[in-house]
Amino acid sequence: MLKPKTEVDVYLGKFLNNRYLIRDLIGKGGMGRVYLAEDAAKGGMPVAVKILMLSLGSQQISQRFAREIFIGAQLGRKSKNIVRVLSYGVTDDKTPFYVMEYLQGKNLKKILKVQPLTTSKFLDICHQICLGLQCAHQGISLKGEIYPIVHRDIKPENIFITEDVKQGEIVRILDFGIAKFLTERSGMTLTDSFIGSLPYCSPEHMEGRKLLDVRSDIYSLGVLMFEMLTGKHPFQTQSNSFGSWYQAHRFQTPPAFEEVNSQVKIPLQLQKLVMSCLAKEVSDRPQNISQILAILEKIKFQLDPSSATSNDIQQTLSPVQLVPVTSASEKECLQKNWPKNKPIAPIGFPYLLHSSQGIIPTFWAMLPQQEIAKFLDKNHSTEFIAKMNMYPMLMWVTVLYNAPLSLTRWLSYFLDMKDNRGQKIVRLLADTGYYHLLFFALEEPTRCTHVMTLTLTASQRQQLADWLMLNQKSHELISAIQAKTLLKSEYEKLKLEILQKLSVNSLSEKIDFKTWMAQLFDKFLQILVRY
User: What is the DSSP letter of 284?
Assistant: First the structure.
């Protein structure tokens, strides 16, 4: 239940968890209040503390809160466009709070109150919002599984813009996971959980659908994009009630841009993009953020060809659509035959698949049929190893394992970026963000029996892009053979680390969730301290 607050703020001047001294109220909304605080353990370093407007009434809710904050912390580490979460806790009256980096700047709501954005500034800000969302939608690893993260509350108040001397304006998205936590675990009614967010909710979100996907965020982004370009909301309602906003989002047609603001000149392709994001049906919207990024980059280049710097290309990674599990390209993989020039043996190798969706990186593996059956429950990991300061070569490793960890298979291959084919595979991995893993059975080696689609993290794609840039300037200090020996040594070290990590994940299933989450978050905070 929502907690009533008196006019006197009970937290000002108080310490939370004997560490965070609350100095000033700097923001408030339907979900909670944000305070400027000093971290006594870090010499009075300024931080932002968000105290939510509810009590943790049960252990289950406490565990859920810890999980969502941990997810937000992981995302902040992966993307500079997502605010960093540093810690979390509970006040003496069992009110949950979390600690973020303190940002100096303005949220998008304050900026839009003055005037709409120019097309150039819109493209820059929207591009950064999309990079943050793309990182979240690609997901995080939790207990060996990849979980796509849907924000559920994209609105101007949750887009914060800071000024950096070297990088210019940096956009950061706030409050990942909090909307889902409040809606699903707090006991609040559906209407209560939308306080302050009604103008930006997707129709399916307002209908209470629990299995929301990334296209719900894309709808909210569409509303935000319209407002950024025109200075006005695309829908008009007679009241601010839940029912009025639902009618608008589900049935009202967005007006043409010139009807809203005739003074603003918006490229036709950009208008079409925004309107497609505002489609009532999820299937009519862009299916992922990568599609939106690709169009934004194209528009930006058309308006200013000189703007396509290497840094821009590196950040957007030439995004293409992430292929769903039942994709056409997977069906094409199932029609592939084992090459006649390859031995019938437990081996693996990369292959560039020319499909109806373009060229896609794939990895072909021949294994015993019984092993393949045990690896089809999505237990897998992808790793890349390189020593670019010595030689432009990387080792591509796919780890397959079954749930009890009684069987593990390591599929590895050297990609020499001095070779055009190796360089092309690395570029495609960075650009697409996924690859197909084709299984061929030793007992029946002719036809592909199963296909898995493995997704790379945003940081892995960025790393591959960095290596491609370094390849243009690299010097060969050792030979290719020596480089393979060096990478094999690093590979053996990595195997031990991964096995240890998988063992911990397996063990965690036997201990209670609260203990596991506490251990996991403590380890994560130790990493934060190092950086």
Answer: G
Same domain? For 148 and 179 the reply is yes
Mean of all residue pLDDT scores within the chain? 80
- Residue type for position 414: F
User: Based on the domain organization, do 134 and 282 belong to the same domain?
Assistant: yes
- Is residue 144 domain-shared with residue 176, that is, in the same domain? yes
Domain that holds residue 77: 15-101
CA 176, CA 344: separation in Å to the nearest integer? 48
Longest dimension (CA), the chain: 79
Half-sphere exposure of 360 (CA within 13 A, CB side): 27
Q: What would the pLDDT profile of 88-142 be if each residue is shown by its tens digit?
A: 888 887 788 889 899 889 999 999 998 889 999 999 999 999 999 998 888 876 6
Task: List all residues 6 or more positions away from 473 whose beta carbon is below 8 Å from its beta carbon.
Answer: none
Examine the residue annotation and report whether 217 is marked as an active-site residue of this protein: no
- Tell me: do 96 and 215 sit in the same domain: no
The helix (run of H) or strand (run of E) holding residue 191 is: helix 190-193
If asked whether residues 370 and 413 sit together in one domain, one would say yes
Q: Are 296 and 127 in contact (CB under 8 A)?
A: yes
Q: Quote the CA–CA distance of 95 and 6 in Å, as a whole number.
A: 15
In eight-state DSSP terms, residue 305 is: G
Which one from 153, 175, 217, 431 is the annotated catalytic residue?
153
Number of domains in the chain: 3
